[in-house]
Design a protein that fits this description.
With about 300 residues, the protein is of the alpha/beta class. It is about 40% helix and about 25% strand. The strands form 4 sheets. It has a 5-stranded mixed sheet with strand order 4-3-5-14-6. Keywords: DNA-binding, Transcription, Transcription regulation.
Length: about 300
């Protein structure tokens, strides 16, 4: 038995929580992966996993072995990377996950320069507005703009702050009037992002610290920020966006801010990636570049 392969199989099963997911990621059959783990248990003389119809559980011995297994495999990976001369420069395929709006509006500003700096690196983009499981989908780095990061074993590096603001097209305001208070705002339709739990609800704070929770009428909801952006520019109603999504439209006047004294909860741009003692050069290169790029404010009024 190849013990290193068996250790990798065992770690993959534990990380992903099932033999099926681990087999799919490794490109092996469920039977082969299960056999590797069983052979490992026989060689060690102890049970590492208990299997039920729904879940896998580590035994006490399995927990101890998993901890050492991770250390050994990461040391092997670090040694391989350090000894491989071609890995001293970013090479191979960098799998980068981003939200669709970020991919369409932001990456064109800096990704070409990043790629030109690393000619041996290929970038594979995963653009999606759903939550991405980095381990299951083998994503190296994910750039996320969010107001909340769930607890996980992933590392999150803060890159930039993202203001969220209310906007509307000038022609919409000419036809329907410009809201001057929250009491008049609630008479206007909100273009809502349907992936939110409450697409028509806004949480606002004024300079004095007063907080208000308001519910606006529904005119249009969509699961695409870019579709909502087009609808807002088209004059269908008021919408809330991260500034980077509407930055150019604010500069050229296609959209204007609404009720600027009332602020929506801000969000942050993070680079999220799996925890590892040794970062691959391709991952480190992307993290360092993005950190430097977003150190300068990019979405100012």
């Amino acid at each position: 038995m190849d013990q290193l392969n068996a250790m990798q199989a065992f770690r993959r099963v534990v990380d992903l929580g099932s033999f099926s997911a681990a087999a799919s990621q490794a490109g092996l059959s469920h039977t082969v992966l299960s056999r590797q783990v069983k052979q490992l248990e026989r060689q060690l003389g102890t049970q590492l996993l208990t299997r039920t119809t729904r879940r896998l559980h580590l035994t006490e011995a399995g927990t101890l072995f998993y901890r050492h297994c991770v250390q050994i495999l990461e040391q092997m990976q670090a040694m391989t990377l350090e000894l491989s001369e071609h890995q001293q420069q970013p090479t191979g395929t960098l799998r980068l996950g981003v939200a669709t709006a970020f991919g369409e509006l932001e990456l064109g500003r800096w990704l070409p320069d990043f790629v030109e700096r690393h000619p041996q690196l290929q970038v594979e983009l995963n653009c999606s507005d759903r939550f991405i499981d980095l381990l299951e989908e083998q994503i190296d780095v994910c750039l996320r703009i969010t107001d909340h990061l769930p607890d996980s074993s992933l590392v999150a590096r803060l890159l930039a702050h993202s203001e969220v603001l209310l906007v509307a097209a000038p022609r919409y305001l000419e036809r329907h009037g410009t809201p001057t208070s929250l009491d008049t705002l609630v008479d206007h339709p909100l273009l809502g992002y349907s992936n939110l739990p409450h697409p028509q609800r806004l949480y606002l704070t004024n300079p004095e610290g007063e907080q208000r929770d308001i519910l606006m009428p529904r005119r249009l909801s969509a699961n695409s920020p870019m579709a909502l952006r087009a609808a807002a520019i088209g004059g269908l109603g008021i919408a809330s966006f991260d500034r980077f999504i509407v930055h150019d439209a604010l500069l050229d006047g296609r959209l204007v801010p609404v009720l600027q004294d009332w602020k929506l909860p801000p969000r942050n741009l993070y680079a999220v990636y799996p925890q590892s003692r040794y970062l691959a050069p391709k991952v480190r290169a992307l993290l360092d570049y993005a950190q430097t790029y977003y150190a300068q404010p990019r979405w100012q009024a």
